[in-house]
Design brief:
Layout: E1 5-6, E2 9-10, H1 20-30, E3 35-39, H2 52-55, E4 61-64, E5 94-95, E6 103-107, H3 108-114, H4 122-133, E7 139-142, H5 160-170, H6 174-187, H7 192-198, E8 224-230, H8 234-245, E9 253-259, H9 270-274, E10 280-286, H10 291-299, E11 306-310, E12 314-315, H11 320-330, E13 335-341, E14 353-354, E15 362-366, H12 385-395, E16 401-410, H13 437-446, H14 449-463, H15 472-496
Parallel strand pairs: 4-7, 8-9, 8-11, 9-10, 13-16
Antiparallel strand pairs: 1-2, 3-6, 4-6, 5-7, 11-15, 12-16, 13-15, 14-16
């Protein structure tokens, strides 16, 4: 039974032939300036109506919550998508396109812009909306505060037909076959009818949506600390410091972590340090190489309200920090990463989106959000420390947004910086690990079991044409050995960190 409550009164309507999506659309047209809230009757007593206006603070936000593990499509969707948006922790506010019909809310005016004309089940429609609007600047969250702590019953999942239809409509066609293979191999299922029916489904296009927010009047600016790890790039660093000195809103302090493994060496930055600057300049000269160590040492010196994680070979416009702060306020953000462009490249204005990465040398983050976050030494021998740091932020309840403007110019200096090639314990092994152990460490930490299975399959397919063993059976055996080596060395990295 479908019921509608407005201002504590039930609205009478003929629901004998009404679909939920149609009713919601009619309500959105009648009450465009109000919040739309939905919930299943099983959670009607648990939904926290009084809290919802504070949970939806922006006109382009959608919040929902699916009790229990997974979502409407269950863990099977994890075979299709490797992104961080599908393995959703349930105890924190977390970015995800999976909008649940069990409980949720959005502005009515947003629904009228994004609701499809032809609708399916309410759950399917919401998930389709979420998948298609996230790239247009709509922020979608799993929000546990929607429901109280009462015992919540389990809900029915989608059918195989709906799952395959969704994959065909929202992903490239090859993913239907990958899903079919994984279900056959891992679950011993043979959903032939669902596979065949998906052949007649057309792919849906992303929703084009213009999200415009009023620019707030800025009365005061925060204190900003700039953190720069550097190695053998004094001239690049000097140019960036001069850019910081020209800012219309100056940073409070700049923390330089200079690395040199030679304990008898002296700093290359003597002349820079001797100059007078419009901000406090803190210089750490360390003899231990590693970007993770350098950034963590620098974080210990941060005294500002916000920290700008910066590379030493970037350039910024004089209004970069001021423009960034205005936009951060506009979107009520706690962590943002900026587009990095080449010197001869023009910046392109794109929608502000929930990002699936983190820029270790191009991000501004509230210090309050990183109290329990540090760069892990697991990634000191390779890459991925910035992705791991971003996941730490998300798992502490902080979303990361991507700003295409104001952009940062990345010079990509040919040598130096903050990272040097290290000798690894596995580089002389007869069987080289694949993927790199630091990558495996990241996958094991954040990927679900199904995501890891699909990653392994795709890696096998990706490298098959580019390696000398053309016999697929022999290649499979070799790949299994390489994967096993990667798992082994990833565990060793974790023990040493």
């Amino acid at each position: 039974m479908l019921r509608v409550l407005h201002e504590n009164k039930f609205i009478e309507f003929d629901d004998s032939q009404a679909s939920i999506c149609g009713v919601v659309t009619n309500l959105a047209l009648q009450y465009p300036d109000e919040l739309l809230v939905w919930c299943h009757e099983n959670v009607a007593q648990a939904i926290q109506l009084e809290a919802i206006p504070n949970l939806v603070s922006l006109p382009h936000e959608i919040i929902s919550f699916q009790p229990g593990y997974g979502g409407y499509f269950g863990s099977a969707i994890e075979w299709v998508e490797e992104s961080l948006f599908v393995a959703v922790p349930k105890h924190i506010r977390y970015a995800t396109w999976m909008i649940s019909a069990q409980a949720g809310a959005m502005q009515a005016c947003l629904w009228t812009q994004i609701a499809p004309a032809n609708t399916s089940s309410f759950d399917y429609t919401l998930h389709s909306i979420g998948k298609r609007v996230q790239s247009s600047g709509v922020f979608c969250y799993s929000e546990p505060a929607l429901l109280g702590e009462k015992s919540i019953p389990k809900f029915a999942a989608s059918s195989s037909g709906e799952l395959y239809r969704f994959v065909k409509q929202h992903y490239k066609g090859v993913w239907v076959w990958i899903l079919f293979w994984q279900q056959l191999r891992c679950q011993r299922q043979l959903p032939l009818s669902a596979l065949i029916s998906s052949w007649f489904v057309q792919r849906k296009k992303p929703v084009t949506l213009q999200v415009e927010l009023p620019m707030p009047a800025v009365l005061s600016f925060p204190t900003i600390s700039v953190l720069i790890p550097t190695l053998n790039r004094p001239q690049y660093l000097a140019d960036f410091l001069y850019d910081l000195a020209k800012q219309t809103h100056l940073p409070t302090e700049v923390i330089i972590v200079e690395q040199n493994p030679d304990t008898s060496s002296s700093s290359q930055l003597t002349e820079l340090l001797a100059q007078e600057w419009k901000f406090q300049l803190k210089h750490l000269f360390v003899h231990e190489l590693g970007v993770c160590n350098a950034r963590n040492r620098g974080l210990e010196q941060v005294s500002g309200d916000w920290v700008f994680f910066a590379d030493d070979d970037i350039r910024i416009a004089p209004t970069f920090l001021e423009d960034s702060w205005r936009k951060i306020q506009q979107y009520q953000a706690e962590a943002v990463s900026f587009a990095c462009i080449s010197p001869n490249q023009n910046s392109i204005k794109l929608p502000v989106i929930q990002w699936n990465a983190f820029g270790g040398g191009s991000s501004i983050v509230a210090v309050a959000a990183i109290q329990n976050c540090r760069f892990s030494a697991v990634f000191e021998s390779g890459f991925g420390e910035d992705l791991d740091f971003g996941m730490q932020l998300r798992h502490s309840g902080t979303d990361i947004l991507f700003f295409s403007t104001p952009a940062i110019t990345h010079l990509k200096a040919p040598s130096g910086g903050f990272r040097v090639k290290k000798t690894t314990a596995w580089q002389n092994e007869a069987v080289s690990p694949k993927p790199a152990p630091s990558v495996m460490a990241y996958l094991q930490k954040y990927y679900s079991t199904n995501q890891l299975i699909s990653y392994k399959l795709l890696l096998w397919l990706k490298y098959y044409p580019n390696q000398p063993i053309k016999n697929p059976i022999l290649y499979y055996r070799r790949f299994q050995q390489q994967w096993k080596q990667s798992v082994y060395w990833a565990s060793k990295l974790a023990e040493q960190s």
